[in-house]
Write a structure and sequence with these properties.
The protein has 264 residues and is α+β, with helices and mostly antiparallel strands. It has one domain: Phage minor tail protein U (Alpha-Beta Plaits, 2-Layer Sandwich), CATH 3.30.70.1700. It is built from five helices and seven strands, in the order αβββααββααββ. The chain has a five-stranded mixed sheet with strand order 1-2-3-5-4. A hairpin with an 8-residue loop joins strand 6 and strand 7. The two termini are 39 Å apart.
Length: 264
């Protein structure tokens, strides 16, 4: 079961690109943003970061979920499982000019020209992302989902200067525990929209604004989400106990009936 991974990506996106900060008719200025990437935070973007259009060549964050290991949470095995997932946050910063340009000017965040400025800007971007997830107000949904059960964080650098563009990247791999998908065991059969979603995805979506990216995704997948068979209403329950005498004497039977369970 894998919708828990979707919940993790959506919660991470909301932490790093909060819906409330996105430009809209009621918020034309946009912001404030928790990281240098601003609105340039993407869910599972496949395009190579170094192939972005010139207008997008600013700090960028891309969120993925990678390895997902499910161990039985009980000795007997089976669901629900203990889900250990790798959350991958890919960070990138690109130099604004060629080598030698801007070296005489005072450095301002967001205007990296030198290799050293590029590196410290990447460090700052990672620090901002980690802070938003673990401590910032926009990471509240993420912390509720994960319970802060982070097992390991591994940050791996990448650097390239192909085609004259100097690009510094870091892949931050966060190994953490998330709840397994939990479906309603006895649905009424009339569930629609968010009510069809399993936890923890349902809880994440309900916590978001209706206009959020995650809410729109959930609206699209909800009709196709698997569901348990609808609960069958019982009108009556009968119970019979055959009692045997340990001394071998004839026993008897105890019977009980509960009817009109639906209150008709």
């Amino acid at each position: 079961m894998s919708l828990a991974r979707a919940a993790l990506r959506i919660a991470t996106l909301e932490a790093l690109r909060p819906t409330a900060a996105i430009v809209s008719d009621t918020h034309p200025a946009g912001g404030p943003w928790p990281t240098l990437a601003g609105a340039r935070v993407y869910d599972s973007r496949i395009d190579p970061v170094d192939d972005l259009a010139a207008s997008e060549r600013r700090p960028v964050i891309v969120i993925y979920t990678d390895e997902d290991n499910s161990d039985p949470a009980q000795k007997a095995g089976g669901p629900p499982y203990k889900r250990i997932v790798d959350l991958v946050v890919e960070l990138s910063v690109i130099a604004l000019g060629l080598v030698g340009e801007g070296e005489e000017e005072a450095y301002v965040v967001g205007t990296a020209y030198t290799d050293a400025e590029l590196e410290i800007e990447l460090d700052l971007l990672e620090a901002q992302a980690r802070f938003a997830l673990h401590y910032g107000p926009t990471g509240a949904i993420w912390r509720k989902l994960t319970g802060r059960k982070v097992i390991d964080i591994h940050s791996l650098p990448h650097r390239t200067s192909e085609e004259g563009d100097r690009l510094a990247l870091r892949t931050v791999r966060i190994k953490l525990v998330i709840p397994d998908d939990c479906y309603d065991p006895a649905p009424s059969g009339s569930e629609a929209g968010n009510d069809r979603l399993p936890e923890p995805l349902r809880g994440v979506i309900i916590a978001l604004a209706a206009t959020s990216y995650g809410a729109k995704l959930a609206q699209g997948i909800a009709p196709a989400v698997p569901a348990m068979p609808a609960a069958v209403s019982l009108d009556a329950v009968a119970l019979r106990l055959d009692v045997a005498d340990p001394q071998g004497q004839p026993g008897g039977a105890v019977e009980a009936v509960a009817d009109n369970l639906q209150g008709d």
